[in-house]
Amino acid sequence: xxxxxxxxxxxxxxxxxxxxxxxxxxxxxxxxxxxxxxxxxxxxxxxxxxxxxxxxxxxxxxxxxxxxxxxxxxxxxxxxxxxxxxxxxxxxxxxxxxxxxxxxxxxxxxxxxxxxxxxxxxxxxxxxxxxxxxxxxxxxxxxxxxxxxxxxxxxxxxxxxxxxxxxxxxxxxxxxxxxxxxxxxxxxxxxxxxxxxxxxxxxxxxxxxxxxxxxxxxxxxxxxxxxxxxxxxxxxxxxxxxxxxxxxxxxxxxxxxxxxxxxxxxxxxxxxxxxxxxxxxxxxxxxxxxxxxxxxxxxx
Length: 300
Fold this sequence. Notes:
Elements: H1 2-5, H2 10-32, H3 34-37, H4 44-72, H5 81-96, H6 100-112, H7 120-127, H8 138-160, H9 164-186, H10 188-214, H11 226-229, E1 232-233, H12 236-242, H13 250-255, H14 261-274, H15 276-280, E2 285-286
Parallel strand pairs: 1-2
Helix pairs in contact: 2-4, 2-5, 2-9, 2-10, 4-5, 4-6, 4-10, 5-9, 8-10, 9-10
């Protein structure tokens, strides 16, 4: 089962990443289209439409980051690694501003040195006291999120400030796919509106979605194995917002990083059925964002 599950399907990955990629300028252009606003009531309704567009933009960028993560493990194409990196570079890296080589270098340390002082994810967990996030209610969770988000995003910006690709690629991409078509079709104001949707989605919605997603993947302080320190996020909000493309099946991913996104769920379900006491009962899961992972029966 595991051997078969490691087979990659380039066309599936291309289709998913392409749909995410194309949807971002489509959302921005829809909001920029003057005719759209003639159908939307002014005031609060218009504001809600704008906020929804910004949130959707952030979510789609997060989906592209998840596909970039897949490509870092060569899970788009195992045996054609140049194709793997080229396709991910065009579809995922350019809009998000993340170099696949740089991401792969750091992320593979996370896998090989998970839970140690070298683990970059554990370093972030300690620096931002992520395990101290209070999930007992929306208000207290939001306060904790806001307190940590500024420092989290500042470090992200600091790390990429000297990387021309990280700064220029998303901007040039937005100018070509959003600003230019909107300006040619409807004028300067439409171009500014479309770019505003993209910019807010990129610098506000995406960091929030990314932080919530990353803060839900591990619990280092009360575990000493890869299995016990990794959390699987199974709720519908996790699936559709914070962990798109099966990114929530994080335990299976850490056990077999070469399992592509389109096989993670089936492997999880097969393991749950085949080993209900060893895998399913010990598995640390979260079904809601505002909940702690289920008790770790395997912790010492």
